[in-house]
Each structure stands twice: as structure tokens, then as C-alpha cells.
Design brief:
alpha+beta, Beta-Lactamase, 5 domains, seven-stranded antiparallel beta sheet, about 50% helix
Length: about 775
């Protein structure tokens, strides 16, 4: 039997039920979709944070690896120098690097004895030179190691024959901190000859990790290649393995295995109390190593979903209230709302299926609640249309697009604006990072390029100057350049233009400046960079070494090794020199100065070789005369032997009755006799390598003349003075004589001090 119902009944039964279902489905769908979208946005943001901070750690460690790589290259470049000169150069270079990089705890190089001594036939044994920090002081030492076999860690680094990052270990000098070492191998003709390493204190990584909190109650951590915690807000996790801390979690998700492989991954888990956590892991690969680390961020799901759950509940509540209102309106105004409801239902059905366009509008002039509902629905659809267009533009990277909120309670609109702002911030940060990377790459490529130039032209000063100034003007996109080298003329330092380059052509000009004369001489005298950005007309022609043009930017950089200025580079440009360009030229200047010194040494060596050949010819002509004088020579030798025996006796007597110390030209102790050690009450290894000023009490007058004192010694002057010395809470007054010792070429190569104790006489 078919049941008959009137329109009112049909409206109440069918339209109301349909409206209730559609409204519930629509609100439920939108609410659940928004909730899921909030979770998806949170996880994507967490992934982005993980990758961003992993990239930051990657950048830091790669910069430190670049130090090791650069030092390895420099050591091989200068290893042909005499040992003491090489050692002084290397220790000074290490010290400058450690002063500029506070995270560096030690720098060391290890040379295989089989490379240094051809007679050494064992596969182990090495010579070590190291600079290290102790109580805030940079110290150094050199010693033989591994004579009985290589330690396990060194053996692995040696066998790898590739760049390596050492598994973090506890610091011996830094309290509550972990260390790691960035190691680069050295090869000669394809054969392994040693390692260069930089020991890093990882405290800055702990500070970085503790500051990563994208959400409330979230935290970050850093895991090594072997699965050990390097950094964690809870220091109790330090050096513990994730397999020991969370064995079930590690076994289920293979975390340690995936970290070791350098995978980027994320996992979602539930805790013991049912709370959910989302973990994002991003790999960190340092240089050319094969042992990546991983940075992880853990975010509590309840925290990121709190706002979404709140909006979900509000949406459900609002939906229920809307349905109740519809029921009341339909019951009271059935006949007057049939057609409007059909239109509204149609729009709601389309909206429920995800259809949104500007044609979806409804206009009613009934003046009642249905008309207001239709207007509100139209406004909501228009709002959704605008949000869809806004989202599409954001997807097309149009991040300057704006969106007008429907009201202060427009949660979706606020979320979209927040998403746009986050993307805009991320884009700005990425652009800044890219700009820094480009500058760093530009500097590194330039240093590599000029490294090749310096290696290829280290035997001819004129050719070296031409290649350097030409390529430097091109690389800086400047206009003019001059290359000045120091020459001694009558004992007076002069800076002569060795090469010049301007407007894509070589310029030959003979220009010479005295110390402190013009910009060239001033730059050399002050031993510091000169950068001018406002240059009056004709200024270059008056005081600069270039002349002929009127650029508005001038850069002069001294070519110095330690405090010895060997030359000056002058570059002029119509473009302003950027900070990284100046830093690049300053970094390059040190390498150029080293090459200049090598060229000068080579020239002097060639000159000595020529003189040696001439002397050989003279000696050949005098051979007959020498043969006739053999008897006299034999007598002379016997007399020399007798005098040598007397000299040896004098030296023995001197060591017994006086205190003898040998210094290098920088004032560091290289040898000391046993009498002095017995007086001071210390062992030899504790004083070798210390500076002349250690333990000495200087008056104000002595401090002011201290530098001149050593300058005179290096020039060959003999000095006498009375000195107060304090060691192990014991005080002495010594009468000292400093005598410069010359080598076979007549050059001062060390300082000999002979002292006697006059403490009792002085008191």
C-alpha cells in the first residue's frame, strides 16, 4: 500500500532529512579535510625545518672540512722548504686558523716515516706536528708516534685514503663536550704520505639543537653515523646509542641502519601513554666522506593538532546548530521556502562534491532568514573561491598575493595567509643562503684558480706578476691593477711595479715607491688593507701607482707573510668592491706572498749555484797547487784536530759552568743544556717550544724595547742584559749574553744565550 503525504509532510520528512544529511556530510567533510590538512601542513613544516637545520650543520662542517683540505694542499706546497722554516710557517698558519675559528680545538698533521726517511722500511711509524688549545692558550708540539704499530683509529683513517669524519668522542680538555676530527689524506705520486686533521669541539651543535623548537614540546637531536647521540636537549643522551636508548623503536623502524645509509625519512609513533609523535630525519654528509650523520626533529602530534581539533569541534557544533535552525524554519515556513530550499540544496550538493566557481550564487528577496542564509552561503562560496584562487597563486609562487579575510574568525583564511608568510620567509632565507653559497663558491673557485697560476709561474717574478694582475683584474671585473714587489736598494726598502694591467691590455710602467710614500708605501708601512670609495679627479695620477684613469674605488692589499711585507697589489674599479671580494683578495695575498718568497729563494739558489760552478772551475785550476800543498794541509789538519779537541773541552766546561739556551728567530726555545734544567727544576720537554718571554719579568722600559731587542738580534747584533726569571715559585737573576749564530751562507739562523746565576750577588 502506497502511503500518501502532502507537501508539508514531504518537506518535513524528505527535505528536512535530506538537508540534515547534506549539511552533516558537508560540514563533516570540510572539518575532517581541514583537520587532515592541518596535520599534513605540520608534518611538511617539520620536514622543512629538519632539512633546513641539517643544511646549516652541513654548511658548518663542510666549511671546517675545507680548512683541512686547504691545509693539506698548503702543506704539500711548502714541504720543499727547509725544515725549521717549514715548521715555523706551518705552526703560524695553524695558529691563525685556530684564532679565526673558535670551534677548532686542535690542528695536526701526521707524516709517514717511510716518506720522510727512505731507510725506514716499516709500514708504521709517523711524525706528528700539532697545535692545540689548553686553558685558552694555543700550544704546539712535535713528536714521533706509532713506532711499534698504528693505533686502531689512525689505522682506519690511514687505510681509508679518503676524507673522513671521526665518530664523536669525549673531549680531554673541554668539559662535558664531544669532539670530532675532520681528516684529509695527502698523496705524492699516488702514494699515501700522511694525514691532516682538524679537531672540532661540537658545543655549537648542541646550542643549535637546543634552539630548534618549531612547536611547543618539540625537540631536535643529532645522531652520528654509528647511531650515537651527538647533541640532544637532554645531556644524559650524550654518546649513547639509539639502539640502547630505544631498542624497540630502532628495531621496528631500522633508524640506525637508515641513518648509516644517509636516508631522508620520517616516522609516526605512539608513546606508552598513547601520545603520538612525528619524527623527521635529514642526512648530513660532510665533504667527500662516506659516513653521514642525521638531524632529527620530534613533534608531539597532540600539540600540532590542538587547534585543528578545536576547529573540528566548533564546526560540528555549528553544523548541529545549523541543522536545528533549518528544522525549525522548515516546520514554520514550509510553503514559502520550498523553492529557495531547492536552490540552496543544489548549491550545497555542488559544494559537497567540491565544485566551486563564481556562477554558484543565489539571490532571494524574501526578506527572511532564508534570504540571509542564501546570502551567507553566497558569501561563503565567494570566500572559498577567493581562497582557492589565492591558494593557486601561492602554488605558482606568487607570494606577494594578498587575501582579504571574511572576518576576524576566518580560520581558513588566516591559515592560508600564515602559509604564504611561511613560504615567503622560507624563500627569503633560501635566497640569502644561495647568495652566501655563491659568494663562498666564488671565493673557493678563485683561490683554486690562482693556486694553479701560482704553481705554474713560481720561477719567474715578471711572468708571475703579469699572470696574477691580469687574472685578478678580470676575476674582480675591475678596470686597472698593479703588482708591486719589495726590493732592497742600498739597504732601503723600495716597492717597484713588477706588472700592470688596465682595460683588457697589459701596461708597462716603471714606478717605484719608498716605504710610506703614496698609497703603495703607506699600505706596505701599515701592513693593512686600504679601501677608498671616494677618489677625487686626478687623485690616482697624483698618489696612486696606476695613473691614467679616474675610477671611484681603489683597493690596496699588502702581500705579507706574518709581519714581513713582500709587496702590494693595487686594484682600481668603477664598481664598489664587495666585502667578500676584499676578503678574497686578502686571502689570496698570503698565497701570493708565499710564492714571491719562493721565487726569491729560487733566484738566490740559482745565483749561489752559478757561483758554485765558477768556484769549481777555479778549484780545478788550483788542483795541482793543492796537491803540492798536501803536506802543509795535513799539518794544518792535525792542528785543527787539536783545536777541535780544545774547543770540545771548552764547550763541556761552558755547559758545566753556565746555562745555555738556543732560540729560533721568533724567540721559541729549540734546545737547553742540563745545567739550566737542573736550576729551573723542570724537564726538557716542558720548556722546548716555549717562548722567550715565558717566566721572564719585564720592566716597562724592557717591554717597550722588546721588539727592537729581537730585531737587532736577527740583524746580527750581540746583546747583554740582566733578567729576572721565575719558575716553580723560585726567582733568579741571570746575567745573559745573546749571540746570533750564522749558517754557511752568513745568514743568522738561530740565537745562542749564555747565562750565569747572579741571584746571590744581586741580593
Amino acid at each position: 500500500m502506497r502511503l500518501k503525504m502532502n507537501i508539508r509532510q514531504k518537506l518535513i520528512i524528505f527535505i528536512l532529512s535530506t538537508t540534515v544529511l547534506l549539511s552533516s556530510a558537508t560540514i563533516g567533510y570540510i572539518s575532517i579535510k581541514a583537520r587532515n590538512m592541518a596535520y599534513s601542513d605540520a608534518t611538511e613544516l617539520t620536514n622543512t625545518y629538519s632539512e633546513q637545520y641539517a643544511a646549516m650543520v652541513h654548511s658548518w662542517l663542510n666549511s671546517d672540512m675545507a680548512i683541512s683540505r686547504t691545509l693539506a694542499s698548503a702543506l704539500q706546497e711548502y714541504k720543499a722548504l727547509p725544515f725549521e722554516e717549514w715548521k715555523t710557517l706551518v705552526l703560524g698558519m695553524y695558529k691563525r686558523v685556530m684564532i679565526s675559528n673558535g670551534q677548532v680545538d686542535a690542528i695536526w698533521d701526521s707524516w709517514e716515516l717511510s716518506n720522510l726517511d727512505p731507510s725506514w722500511d716499516k709500514p708504521h711509524g709517523r711524525w706528528l706536528l700539532i697545535n692545540y688549545r689548553e686553558n685558552g692558550i694555543i700550544k704546539s708540539k712535535a713528536e714521533l708516534r706509532s713506532l711499534d704499530g698504528d693505533p686502531v683509529v689512525y689505522g682506519k683513517l690511514k687505510a681509508a685514503e679518503a676524507e673522513s669524519i671521526v665518530e664523536p668522542y669525549a673531549s680531554a680538555l673541554q668539559a662535558n663536550g664531544l669532539m670530532t676530527s675532520l681528516v684529509v689524506p695527502m698523496f705524492e705520486k699516488g702514494r699515501f704520505i700522511g694525514l691532516v686533521g682538524v679537531d672540532l669541539f661540537l658545543g655549537r651543535l648542541q646550542a643549535l639543537v637546543c634552539g630548534i623548537t618549531p612547536y611547543a614540546n618539540s625537540f631536535a637531536f643529532l645522531i652520528s653515523n654509528e647511531g650515537n647521540y651527538i647533541a640532544h636537549p637532554d645531556t644524559a643522551f650524550f654518546s649513547k646509542n639509539i639502539a640502547d636508548v630505544s631498542p624497540e623503536l630502532n628495531e621496528k623502524y631500522r633508524i640506525a641502519e637508515r641513518v648509516k645509509k644517509g636516508e631522508r625519512f620520517n616516522i609516526s609513533i605512539k608513546g606508552d601513554k598513547g601520545e603520538g609523535f612525528y619524527y623527521a630525519f635529514s642526512p648530513i654528509t660532510v665533504g667527500n666522506t662516506s659516513t653521514p650523520w642525521s638531524l632529527g626533529i620530534a613533534v608531539p602530534v597532540n600539540t600540532v593538532m590542538a587547534e585543528a581539533n578545536k576547529n573540528f569541534n566548533i564546526s560540528i557544533f555549528a553544523g548541529v546548530m545549523a541543522v536545528l535552525l533549518i528544522i525549525i524554519v522548515v516546520v514554520l515556513l514550509t510553503n514559502s521556502i520550498i523553492n529557495p530550499l531547492k536552490k540552496i540544496t543544489t548549491l550545497l550538493k555542488n559544494l559537497a562534491h567540491g565544485k566551486i566557481d563564481h556562477s554558484m550564487k543565489i539571490a532571494l528577496d524574501t526578506g527572511d532568514e532564508i534570504a540571509e542564509m542564501a546570502l551567507a552561503l553566497t558569501q561563503s562560496i565567494e570566500g572559498l573561491n577567493k581562497k582557492a584562487e589565492f591558494a593557486a597563486k601561492i602554488g605558482n609562487n606568487e607570494l606577494e598575493t594578498d587575501l582579504s579575510l571574511l572576518s576576524e574568525d576566518d580560520v581558513l583564511g588566516k591559515s592560508l595567509l600564515e602559509m604564504r608568510d611561511n613560504l615567503r620567509t622560507a624563500k627569503t632565507e633560501e635566497a640569502a643562503r644561495k647568495a652566501e653559497d655563491e659568494k663562498r663558491t666564488w671565493i673557493n673557485e678563485g683561490l683554486a684558480r690562482f693556486g694553479d697560476i701560482l704553481r705554474q709561474n713560481n720561477d719567474n717574478m715578471s711572468k708571475l706578476g703579469d699572470e696574477i694582475i691580469k687574472n685578478l683584474v678580470w676575476y674582480l671585473k675591475a678596470n686597472q691593477g698593479g703588482f708591486f714587489v719589495k726590493q732592497d736598494k742600498g739597504g732601503k726598502p723600495m716597492f717597484n711595479m713588477e706588472a700592470a694591467f688596465a682595460y683588457d691590455r697589459k701596461r708597462y710602467q716603471n714606478k717605484t715607491f719608498e716605504l710610506s710614500e703614496g698609497l703603495i708605501g703607506t699600505c706596505a708601512a701599515e701592513k693593512d688593507t686600504v679601501h677608498l670609495t671616494e677618489i677625487p679627479a686626478n687623485y690616482i695620477e697624483i698618489t696612486s701607482g696606476l695613473g691614467g684613469s679616474n675610477p671611484n674605488n681603489l683597493l690596496l692589499v699588502p702581500l705579507k707573510i706574518e709581519e714581513d711585507v713582500l709587496g702590494v697589489i693595487e686594484i682600481a674599479s668603477f664598481n664598489k668592491f664587495q666585502k667578500h671580494e676584499i676578503e678574497f683578495v686578502e686571502s689570496l695575498a698570503s698565497s701570493i706572498a708565499s710564492t714571491i718568497r719562493s721565487v726569491l729563494i729560487n733566484a738566490k739558489t740559482n745565483e749561489l749555484l752559478t757561483k758554485s760552478q765558477e768556484q769549481a772551475e777555479i778549484m780545478a785550476a788550483q788542483e795541482e797547487e793543492m796537491r803540492q800543498n798536501m803536506e802543509e794541509l795535513q799539518a794544518t789538519q792535525e792542528e785543527a784536530a787539536r783545536k777541535a779537541q780544545e774547543t770540545e773541552g771548552l764547550i763541556t766546561a761552558l755547559n758545566t759552568s753556565a746555562f745555555v739556551v738556543e732560540y729560533d728567530l721568533q724567540g721559541f726555545v729549540t734546545n737547553i743544556n742540563s745545567s739550566f734544567l737542573d736550576l729551573l727544576g723542570i724537564s726538557k720537554d716542558l720548556i722546548i717550544g716555549t717562548h722567550h718571554t715565558e717566566g721572564i719579568t719585564l720592566s716597562a722600559e724592557e717591554k717597550s724595547t722588546y721588539d727592537k731587542f729581537w730585531i737587532d738580534l736577527r740583524k746580527g747584533a750581540i746583546k747583554k742584559q740582566k733578567t729576572k726569571v721565575a719558575y716553580n715559585n723560585r726567582h733568579y737573576i741571570l746575567l745573559e749574553t745573546y749571540t746570533p749564530v750564522r749558517d754557511q751562507f752568513g745568514e743568522v739562523h738561530k740565537i745562542l744565550k749564555i747565562a750565569i746565576d747572579i741571584t746571590e750577588l744581586a741580593s
